[in-house]
UniProtKB/TrEMBL annotation:
Belongs to the universal ribosomal protein uS11 family. Belongs to the peptidase S33 family. ABHD4/ABHD5 subfamily. This is Putative cardiolipin-specific deacylase, mitochondrial. The keyword Ribosomal protein applies. GO terms for molecular function: lysophosphatidic acid acyltransferase activity; phospholipase A2 activity; structural constituent of ribosome. It comes from the Eukaryota. GO terms for biological process: cardiolipin acyl-chain remodeling; lipid homeostasis; phosphatidic acid biosynthetic process; translation. Residues 339-645 form the AB hydrolase-1 domain.
């Protein structure tokens, strides 16, 4: 079988300490057989400076060939000597009608090749090279499969990519390649590329951060350009120790201030960018290990390992995005694991400043801490939601909407094998934590509710518009600590809220009107299409003013990607909360049935009504549960855990160590 015509495999030569090796006169090495077997390992003068990615191949080099046409994708895996192992092909005849069908077929082909590669890896150490040719959707599918979960194992052993696709001046490929070069130049690592090189650097390769990239032009140019590229290390957002075997992520995009920048951000948004934006936040953890990192070892000082994953539920289309922080040595006296649950339209990445402290607690106590994205939010499955109850059946609507979330949480608990857990919920996550505890009381050991939604009865005590219009509370210091909520502190917070209500702006009135009309804030952003990222940027720069510039960009990028994702869980909100963000079935009327320790936490600039928490603590006391507490955190608003993380982290550890109630 003929694979690629005139295929050759050039071998990079040692170069003197440069990031880019360009030798237009380098002669192509004649293939040893029809499949272009790699050359034997080179010897090196020990005094010769090592180029940044001059790889000496010492392991068997398997080869994967991907030939993509408009209608079909053919993939072949060969042994180092060129003997074919497996060939897979698929597609749909008719380019206009093929659309995603051709992409999916190509994706499945390359995934099948990856599985065969894994089988070969079980027989012994190996490395492999990828050869591409053509412009069909299967070519893009090969790149995407490589960076997806299916490519986690094999991509670690990929040594080079050879692109044999002909250059098509003025067409899509050239446009994408030029954009890739421009983006790469902004990172300061390839500013001296020649114009000809700029025309042939593919966008996908930079997003993959492959160790060695060999790109050859077609016979139309008859030149072989040998590129050995190593991206300069991008600074992490913290002083976390470098991760062994993990390539750096590119920095977050600038917050768009122009339509053009907003359009670029909108175009780039998607699952891949969302995963990268989340990982930027998680890499602040010194004990976080991205998928495929080597080795996956615990932090020596903290005895903890953190990894993210998708946990599939009973329905194969349903999964919850999960961060697991697990102690390397369990203790018989360890407390139940803690689970962080985010608020409406947010994601687990919002807790990035709380993970280090909670991780240290888990490592010290020999337990685990988890954070999940609710079904239909964050990076969890965006599944459709429908309510069968009639509009006037309030209890039925509330029950169905609550079940959408808490049933998936129960399925997740079963999949994770947890007996009991402490739930730490913010805003809507706090409301749903109480609902879960009411339905599954034997599975919850404690509740810690951070500015929970849906607690009070009075519909005029909350101002959801302030979530959009308020700036981040600032002034937090290391000396801050949460204080018990005395009647005086609660009254001070109430006075501030009443003052804000009196000076409500037009923006707040517009927000309230849209809420009453059933609009989701995220639906508003998606409706603006190309202007969406710029609209989110106005929120990000105001709401996260207390963060560093780099962290603000990272949070903005994260919010853009989860906001522009398909609407799902956000549509449940109108069934749970009436206009004004008060619950149709207030928590204060239901919480007395619980017999476990419950802690309410509010910021001193919170827009949630603290009276609801105070009344709930009193309701618990009257029902015989004296384990209810309430705290006010200084210099903090509704996102209390983000505005004053030091004070909240200290409080969380204190409450997690609080003795359990024995029956």
């Amino acid at each position: 079988m003929e694979l690629f015509e005139e295929l050759s495999v050039p071998t990079p030569t040692p170069a003197a300490s440069t990031d880019l090796v360009l030798d237009e006169d380098y002669p192509p090495v004649a293939p040893e057989n029809g499949y272009g077997a790699p050359q034997p390992p080179q010897t090196r003068n020990p005094m010769t400076p090592r180029s940044t990615f001059d790889v000496v191949k010492s392991k068997p080099q398997y080869m994967v060939f991907v030939k993509a046409t408009r209608n079909n994708t053919t993939t072949t895996l060969t042994k180092p000597n060129g003997d074919p192992i497996i060939t897979l092909s698929g597609g749909k005849v008719g380019f206009k009608s093929s659309n995603r069908a051709s992409y999916e077929a190509g994706y499945q082909c390359i995934v099948g090749i990856f599985k065969q590669l894994e089988l070969e890896m079980n027989k012994g150490d190996l490395e492999w090279q990828l050869y591409l040719k053509g412009f069909g959707q299967g070519r893009d599918a090969a790149y995407r499969a490589l960076i997806a979960a299916e490519g986690t194992t094999v991509k670690q052993f990929l040594t080079s990519v050879t692109d044999r696709s002909p250059i098509k001046i003025g067409e899509v490929r050239l446009c994408h390649q030029q954009h890739a070069v421009n983006a790469y130049r902004r990172h300061g690592t390839a500013s001296h590329l020649s114009p000809l090189c700029s025309l042939i650097l593919p966008l996908s390769l930079f997003s993959l951060h492959l160790p060695s990239i060999v790109i050859t032009t077609s016979a139309l140019i008859r030149r072989h350009l040998i590129l050995s590229i190593r991206p300069a290390p991008y600074p992490l957002m913290s002083a976390a120790a470098p991760l062994s075997g993990v390539l750096p992520l590119p920095p977050a995009r600038e917050i768009p201030s122009t339509f053009a920048a907003s359009l670029r951000s909108w175009w780039a948004a998607g699952e891949k960018e969302g995963a990268a934006s989340e990982e930027r936040l998680l890499r602040k953890l010194p004990f976080f290990r991205p998928a495929g990192s080597l080795p996956s070892t615990p932090d020596d000082d903290m005895h903890i390992v953190a990894q993210s994953s998708r946990v599939e539920l009973n329905n194969p289309k349903h999964y919850l995005n999960t961060l697991s922080m697990t102690a390397t040595s369990a203790s018989k006296a360890s407390p139940p694991p803690a689970v962080l649950l985010h608020g409406y339209g947010a994601g687990l990445g919002f807790f990035y400043q709380n993970f280090p402290s909670l991780g240290r607690w888990a490592g010290k106590r020999g337990t685990s801490v988890y954070a999940i994205d609710w079904l239909g939010m964050g990076r969890s499955a965006r599944v459709p939601f429908t309510v069968k109850s009639k509009r006037e059946d309030i209890d039925g609507r509330v029950h169905e909407a609550e079940s959408f979330f808490v049933d998936s949480l129960e399925e997740w608990r079963q999949k994770m094998g947890l007996e009991t857990m402490t739930l730490i919920g913010h805003s809507l996550g706090g409301y749903l934590s109480v609902v879960y505890a009411l339905r599954y009381p034997s599975r919850v050991s404690k509740l810690i509710l951070l500015s929970p939604a849906g607690v009070p009865r009075d519909p005029n005590t909350t101002e959801p518009s302030r979530e959009v219009t308020d700036s981040q509370a600032t002034g937090a210091s290391d000396d801050d600590h949460a204080e018990s909520a005395t009647q005086g502190r609660v009254q001070d917070l109430k006075s501030e809220q009443q003052s804000e209500q009196r000076k409500e702006t037009r923006a707040r009135k517009l927000f309230t009107y849209l809420w009453e009309e059933g609009w989701s804030p995220f639906q508003v952003v998606r409706s603006t299409v190309f202007w969406g990222p710029m609209l989110v940027g106005k929120y990000s720069t105001r709401r996260f003013i207390g963060l560093s510039e780099e962290d603000t960009r990272a949070m903005h990028d994260y919010i853009v990607n989860i906001t522009l994702a398909k609407g799902s869980g956000e549509y449940c909100i109108s069934h749970l909360l009436a206009p004004g963000a008060h619950a149709r079935r207030p928590i204060v009327d239901r919480i007395s049935a619980l017999k476990i320790p419950i802690t309410f936490v509010y910021g001193d600039h919170d827009w949630m009504d603290p009276d609801g928490g105070a009344e709930s603590v009193e309701s618990l006391r009257q029902s015989g549960n004296g384990h209810g507490r309430m705290y006010i955190v200084p210099h903090a608003g509704h996102h209390v855990y983000l505005d004053n993380p030091k004070a909240v982290n200290d409080l969380l550890v204190k409450e997690l160590d609080r003795p359990l109630v024995t029956a």
